[in-house]
Design a protein that fits this description.
heterodimer; A: mainly alpha; B: mainly alpha; 8 helices; 63% helix
């Protein structure tokens, strides 16, 4: 189970780097944070998992989306 | 090199690992005895290592100040597409229904940090996400009634002040700073530490909530009031 979560996390991170639409990259980073929160819960650190879910998948995702509305939506590199 | 170093770490949860040998045992055994708090993590971050958490709250607030310095450039201006009310009935009604529920859960998380996973950071971040949700779905102007933008940074400062104030009160009444057993509440020693943990968790919740909303508002509006 933990192995599956690790695989999903690594796949989400690699795809977030490769994709050219920055909004999709922000969404994939939110997915990565969510999977890491599940991993923390699976390892027994529920407080840390709670924090990661709220801040990583929630607030950081929102701040990334608002920040990329200031620049262009397609990636340059 | 990372894999080679990682292979040498002790097994997860190993009671004979070097990290678990010295003070962890005292913390685990003393959490209920010293502070009447079943949640060992909360006792550790708010009571035994309370000074570190005060530093962390100050770091969160100074991150908000740094974002204020970086982002408040009036020539940047508002993003025209974000912050307008969407006018979509489904998202509007669902948001208006969900915000009080999430806020009630956030209050539960803050006040039950002693007994369930949670505490000040999580609860404060949850209330901040409700305010961010209102800003995005209900529109920037309409959500000022929920939480005005000018209240963000002062509330963050109030959170740090509450935490430092509790430590200072303990110093005034004869103990070391942040030693909650010297608070003037007239309770037995372990219940005093229980209440001290609750006060600092409330301070942390205010600090995190004010800072997160102030960062979001600075990012969205660039400091302009229009």
């Amino acid at each position: 189970m933990i192995f599956v979560l690790f695989v999903v996390a690594i796949v989400a991170a690699v795809v977030a780097l490769q994709v050219t639409d920055l909004l999709a990259a922000a969404a994939l980073l939110s997915v990565f944070s969510f999977v890491v929160a599940l991993l923390y819960g699976a390892l027994g650190a529920v407080d840390v998992g709670f924090n990661e879910a709220v801040l990583g998948a929630g607030v950081t995702g929102v701040l990334l989306v608002v920040a990329l509305f200031h620049t262009r939506r397609g990636s340059v590199d | 090199m990372l894999l080679a170093a990682g292979a040498g770490l002790p097994l997860y949860g190993d009671p004979t690992a070097p990290a678990s040998l010295h003070v962890s045992d005292d913390y685990v055994r003393g959490s209920m005895v010293d502070a009447h708090t079943p949640n060992i993590v909360t006792t550790m971050i708010a009571d035994y290592r309370g000074f570190d958490t005060l530093g962390e709250t100050m770091v969160v607030f100074s991150a908000g100040l740094a974002c204020m310095l970086l982002l408040r450039t009036p020539e940047r201006g508002r993003i025209p597409t974000l912050g307008r009310p969407k006018g979509n009935v489904i998202t509007d009604i669902v948001t208006r229904a969900m915000i009080p529920v999430i806020q009630l859960f956030a209050l539960y998380v803050v006040f039950h940090g002693h007994y369930s996973p949670g505490g000040g950071f999580q609860g404060g971040a949850l209330i901040a996400t409700t305010i961010l949700l209102a800003r995005m779905v209900l529109g920037f102007e309409h959500s000022q009634a929920l939480f005005p933008t000018a209240l963000g940074t002062p509330l963050g400062l109030a959170g740090v002040a509450i935490y430092a104030g509790v430590g200072f009160v303990a110093l005034l009444f004869g103990g070391n700073a942040l030693d909650y057993s010297y608070l003037p509440l007239g309770l037995p020693k372990d219940m005093l530490r229980n209440w001290g943990i609750l006060f600092v968790e409330i301070g942390v919740a205010f600090g995190v909530m004010g800072t997160l909303v102030s960062i979001f508002d600075d990012l969205l509006t660039g400091g302009r009031r229009a």
